[in-house]
Amino acid sequence: MNERVRLAPVGLGRWARVLSRAAGRGDVIELVSCYSRDETRRRAFQDEFGIARSAPSYQELLRDDSVEGVVITTPNDTHLPVIAEALAAGKGVYTDKPIAHTVEDAVAIAKAAGESGRAFAVGHAARRLAGSREMKRWIDDGRLGAVSLAEANFSNERGLELTPQTWRWHADRSPGGSFIQLGVHHADNLQYLLGPVRSVTAHARRLHTEAEVPDAVMSIVEFESGALGYIGAGWASPGVYTVNLQGTEANLRYDLDFTHWDEAQHADDYSTLHSQGSGEPERSVVELPRTDMFREQLEEFALAIRGDATIEVGAAEGVRALAVVHAALTSSQRNGAAVPVAEVVEAAGGAAVAEVRA
Amino acid sequence: MNERVRLAPVGLGRWARVLSRAAGRGDVIELVSCYSRDETRRRAFQDEFGIARSAPSYQELLRDDSVEGVVITTPNDTHLPVIAEALAAGKGVYTDKPIAHTVEDAVAIAKAAGESGRAFAVGHAARRLAGSREMKRWIDDGRLGAVSLAEANFSNERGLELTPQTWRWHADRSPGGSFIQLGVHHADNLQYLLGPVRSVTAHARRLHTEAEVPDAVMSIVEFESGALGYIGAGWASPGVYTVNLQGTEANLRYDLDFTHWDEAQHADDYSTLHSQGSGEPERSVVELPRTDMFREQLEEFALAIRGDATIEVGAAEGVRALAVVHAALTSSQRNGAAVPVAEVVEAAGGAAVAEVRA
Fold first, then answer.
1. A207: which chain B residues are within 8 Å (Cβ-Cβ)?
2. H/E element holding B247?
3. Nearest Cα to B294, choosing from B138, B134, B197, B185?
4. Is the ipTM beyond the 0.90 threshold?
5. Fewest C-beta atoms under 10 Å: which of A70, A181, B187, B195?
6. A333 Cβ partners below 8 Å, 6+ apart?
């Protein structure tokens, strides 16, 4: 191993800690600086992770030549300016999911990333879970046969705990509530597994949360392959994380205990994948290797900065996942009528992005 | 116990055997005659179940004063004439689900049943599964809190086995394919659990079946309570039967091994109900009593003929479940736009039925 890749977390909340712990589980990454507007938080973070220095301003962090890349966990609606500035300063950029709060911002980020030529990664880590990888293998090698139905749900009780002091409360900062925060994971997972989504039908409801955003969202997606997918995302119940695939040859059912999500190195220990073959009602447990989705994605990003890895989830995938979320919100406003994903991408000035994708 | 209630199966295929075996597990019902147009089939059925006689014509069966009620398992599109004739002859009528193939026929059946004053039951047996009953108790006594999302799936591989010789192949005889045959069970279950559905959004696709009908259907229902429900029904994969409820206080997950469906007295042995409390990621197994859904519904029907029981699932419930199916098919034709259940009932001349219901 060469010298470690030097990264700096930006936005030092709970999620920055999850990711910094993940980076610390390997020997690829060194955290050399960090930045938050809040000095107290900045100092505390620096101490907690033994980081050599912290920057008093974002501009100063970006002027630091020793920093090769930034790990962004600021609120969704700040992604565009924070990312654009980092790219302009020549840094590699990892941003947490979703890529942005609006498709307009996402498309602008994709363009900036493409033009910069810098390493750019979006934190759709869930596709790296051992169960996701195994489901993908079953699809690719034909063990599932032709998949016609795919169902996914990601829910937790966070919508019941929101306050106006948190950005997730506000519709203009995080439109879509449970769907942009949780459902977007499955918008990526299902497209990873089954290819691009053509159109989205959805109903989004604000039922039990006090916040401005929906806490109960159900959507049906149609894949370009013709298969149908369902994504449920609730914010008013105990945690759920499931993916079910139904193929002509077999079914797969994946179930993960969400409470261990943050400790990605243990996530596989609390997940199960069951298969059920054609004509065989009995379920079999599919053995899963152990993975560490957060560490893996960060190390891939870090190595890509040095040209030693290819980023799996970049701007195109980030735009595509977010576009499903916004197509769902538009569909809900249209009483459920299906909205083409291309429509929301193009309306956001993303024709070029859509072409690159196709 | 008084003298057994004297019933006669009409339409002597696979399902008539399932129901006749169920009746034979108790001492409430005596099968005294039977009818099928096919004489060979009629004789074989008579022999198999030791039935005293069989009728050479349906009219003759209905003239038989010893027959108190008929158990109808003829194709969906024959229900209206077969039921109407039996009611006119003064017989009680049990019909298998769906109540009919069209809402028009369903509404006509509901009117005929109401006007006749005879016992009339529809075979939506799944709500009698121990798991369904237990979920209903959790909702009613508040253990789930407020339910925001409910997901159900009923699928099997029958769509891959259909031939033009079977009525289920034909769109005019069984519109909706997997949704009218399998999904309709959950259209009843979810309304049993969470109250009436207000509107339905759906996409129905013909993907892998050779038949004329869809084999992949996903729908989102909105309950009058505001909660959202999902029903998936596929006909091109190994069997699935699941119901998941997400409430503010707890989740419930019900999973039944469909291959034991026909032997209802064993269905509970092959089903599991898990609960997950608020703040408790771990799942607990909920113990289920043993039931026999097919026997129970037939005995209830039989006793109702004598005035000794009240029918739980009658015409109103049958119409309501079928209306969800047809609202789904209409929605799919409208690119997913939500269709009010009341619209399809009223379009079918069912205003009176809707009023009775409301």
1. 146, 148, 226-227
2. strand B240-247
3. B185
4. yes
5. B195
6. none
**In this complex, do B203 and A277 lie within 8 Å of one another by their Cβ atoms?**
no
Sign, CA torsion A35/A36/A40/A42: negative
- B332 close to A (CB below 8 A): no
Q: Which element (helix H / strand E) includes A220?
A: strand A216-223
pLDDT at position B357 over 90: no
Which DSSP state fits A180? I
Residues B181 and B286 in one domain: yes
Confidence of residue B106 (pLDDT cuts 50, 70, 90): very high
Q: Kindly state the percentage of chain A with pLDDT values over 70.
A: 96
pLDDT at A281: 66
> Using CA atoms, how far apart are residues A268 and A291, in angstroms rounded to an integer?
7
In this complex, is the C-beta atom of B224 within 8 Å of any C-beta atom belonging to chain A?
no
Establish if A247 touches chain B: CB-CB under 8 angstroms.
yes
Partner-chain contact A246 B259, CB within 8 Å? no
| pLDDT for position B74 | 97
Per-position DSSP letters for B127-196, written without gaps between them:
GGSHHHHHHHHHHHTTTT-SEEEEEEEEE-SGGGT--TTSGGG-TTTSTTTHIIIIIHHHHHHHHHHH--
Q: Do B281 and A238 touch (CB under 8 A)?
A: yes
**HSE-CB of A346 using CA atoms within 13 angstroms:** 7
Domain of A232: which CATH number?
3.30.360.10
Beta bridge partners of A152: A231, A243
Residue B47: CATH number of its domain: 3.40.50.720
Query: B 32-71 residues with CB below 8 A of A?
Result: none
- Of the pLDDT bands very low, low, confident and very high (cuts 50, 70, 90), residue A116 is very high
Which candidate from B215, B230, B331 shows the least CB-CB separation from A232? B230
Instruction: Count contacts between A and B (CB, < 8 Å).
Output: 174
Give chain A's domain count. 2
**C-alpha R_g of chain A:** 20
Write the single-letter amino acid at B47. D
Q: Write down the mean pLDDT value for chain A.
A: 95
One domain, residues B79 and B194:
no
Number of other CB atoms surrounding residue A140 within 10 Å:
10
DSSP B286: P
Question: For residues B356 and B199, which has the higher predicted lDDT (pLDDT)?
Answer: B199
Query: Does residue B151 sit within a domain?
Result: yes
Instruction: Verify that B266 and B306 share a domain, yes or no.
Output: no
Residues B279 and B133 in one domain: yes
**What is residue B201's three-state secondary structure?**
strand
Say if A45 falls within a structural domain.
Answer: yes
What is the torsion angle, in degrees rounded to the nearest 10, for the CA atoms of residue B336, residue B340, residue B343 and residue B344? 60
Alpha helices in chain A (DSSP H): 14-24, 39-49, 58-63, 79-88, 103-116, 130-140, 178, 184-194, 264-267, 293-305, 315-333, 341-347, 351-357
**Is-contact A288 A134, C-beta < 8 A?**
yes
Burial of A203 by CB count in 10 Å (0-12 exposed, 13-18 middle, 19+ buried)?
Answer: buried
Q: Does residue B356 carry a pLDDT above 60?
A: no
**pLDDT, position B2:** 67
A117 shares its domain with A255: no
Of B201, B248, B279, the CB nearest to A336: B201
Chain B residue whose CA is closest to A209: B248
